[in-house]
Amino acid sequence: MRECVLILDNIRSVANVGSIFRTADCLGVSKIVLVGTTPTPIDRFGRKRKDFIKVSLGTEEFVKWEYVKEIEPTINEFKKEGYKIIALEQDSRAIHLTPSPSPKLGEGSARGRREGVKSVLIVGNEVEGVPRKTLGQCDKIIEIPMKGRKESLNVSVATGIALFNLL
User: Fold this and answer.
1) Domain 3-99+125-166, what fold?
2) Contacts with 71 (C-beta within 8 Å, 6 or more apart), sequence order
3) Mean pLDDT, the chain, as a whole number?
């Protein structure tokens, strides 16, 4: 199975982070790194956050996670360990995610081509996105093409789409 770590960089909403935990569990993310102002499942007094658990449905109990204050050293550590660093962001250098055709019944799947690849997906703040400095550290930038009048999706929805594509 392909290994993927998720970095949530200064996400503000407890509901978004809890929802991302559920998606990460369902798709087999190996670890979530919570950075800066991103809410954690445990409050500053060491208590479980009821607002977090309400949305995550307890997935914080089995999805590995850690909190770090700064993103840069974390990215550098993953690079040393051979991970491909990918940011989900609207950017002129971004590669558009496109739907892949589903295999016909009985043909198997395309998953074998992706086995053994280690990647980190960075998702940024709901308003400002992934900072330019962080984008400069990435091996690849991906984005979900928008066809409607709004220019972006909710961060938890966008994360789910990107993870499904990567995994």
Assistant:
1) Alpha/beta knot (3.40.1280)
2) 7, 9, 35, 36, 122, 134
3) 89
